[in-house]
Specification:
Elements: H1 4-20, E1 30-36, E2 39-42, E3 58-60, E4 66-68, H2 79-88, E5 94-98, H3 101-109, H4 119-124, E6 130-131, H5 140-145, E7 154-157, E8 161-166, H6 169-191, H7 200-213
Parallel strand pairs: 6-7
Antiparallel strand pairs: 1-2, 1-5, 2-3, 3-4, 5-8, 7-8
Bound molecules: zinc ion.
The site of zinc ion (ZN) has 5 residues, from loops.
GO molecular function, one term: aldehyde-lyase activity
Domain Class II aldolase/adducin N-terminal: 9-187
Organism: Merdimonas faecis
């Protein structure tokens, strides 16, 4: 098992990746990792996730209250959104929130990513629904995502960004990459006259593949 310091170091590394890939601007984005039922590490507010060192990372309880934070650092106000996911999804061990360019463009246009256009996205995500806009930092955001948590591991936040969660920080981050790749393909295909959709019977075959693979997480085709 990883030590707390190793997890903090991993959070800094993922922060650099998210920042360097342009998935956030300036101090945007936040992520968290579950240590136990009442202990979670989370990124601080007001700092670039691309330049973090382990002492930046804060610790909160399941209510989002601060357990540990070095001077000058406090948890993101979006930690409420993370806590709702951990509450409803005991299988989830990490949450990533970012503003990747293409996925966020779809969120701003009010368009969910639900069309089956490529096998990998159908198998891994099954779609990315759009949660109704909520004011950041309020309970409107956790309330808006709750209805999707049973069936999806990725959600677009209307007029805001994207949210992914999984059984590890790396997998939650990979999901964010997959969401952004899917959004970018949809956008570029639109430039070429529109995406061709995979026919329903072929989508069902991909769902069957997903069921056979016993992939962790939730998916509309697997309850
Ligand atoms: Zn945000």
């Amino acid at each position: 098992m990883k030590s707390e310091l190793e997890i903090k170091q991993e959070m800094c590394e993922i922060g650099r990746r998210v920042y360097n890939r342009g998935m956030v601007a300036a101090n945007d984005g936040n992520f968290s990792v579950k240590l136990s039922d009442d202990e979670f590490l989370c990124t601080p507010t007001g700092v670039s996730k691309g330049f973090m060192t382990p002492e930046f990372i804060c610790k909160v309880n399941a209510k989002g209250e601060v357990l540990e934070a070095n001077e000058g650092f406090r948890p993101s106000s979006e930690v409420k959104m993370h806590m709702r996911i951990y509450e409803k999804r005991p299988d989830v061990k990490a949450v990533v929130h970012a503003h990747p360019m293409y996925a966020t463009s779809f969120a701003i246009a009010g368009k969910p990513l639900m069309d089956p256009i490529m096998p990998e996205a159908v198998i891994s995500l099954g779609g990315v629904p759009l949660a109704k806009y909520g004011t950041p930092g309020t309970m409107e955001v956790p309330d808006s995502i709750e209805g999707f948590l049973d069936d999806y591991d990725a959600v677009l936040l209307e007029n805001h960004g994207a949210l992914t969660y999984s059984d590890s920080l790396l997998n939650a981050y990979y999901k964010m990459e997959s969401v952004e790749f899917y959004a970018r393909l949809m956008y570029q295909a639109q430039m070429l006259g529109g995406a061709k959709i995979i026919p329903p019977e072929k989508v069902e075959e991909l769902y069957e593949t997903r069921r056979r693979m016993n992939v962790v997480g939730r998916h509309p085709a697997v309850k």
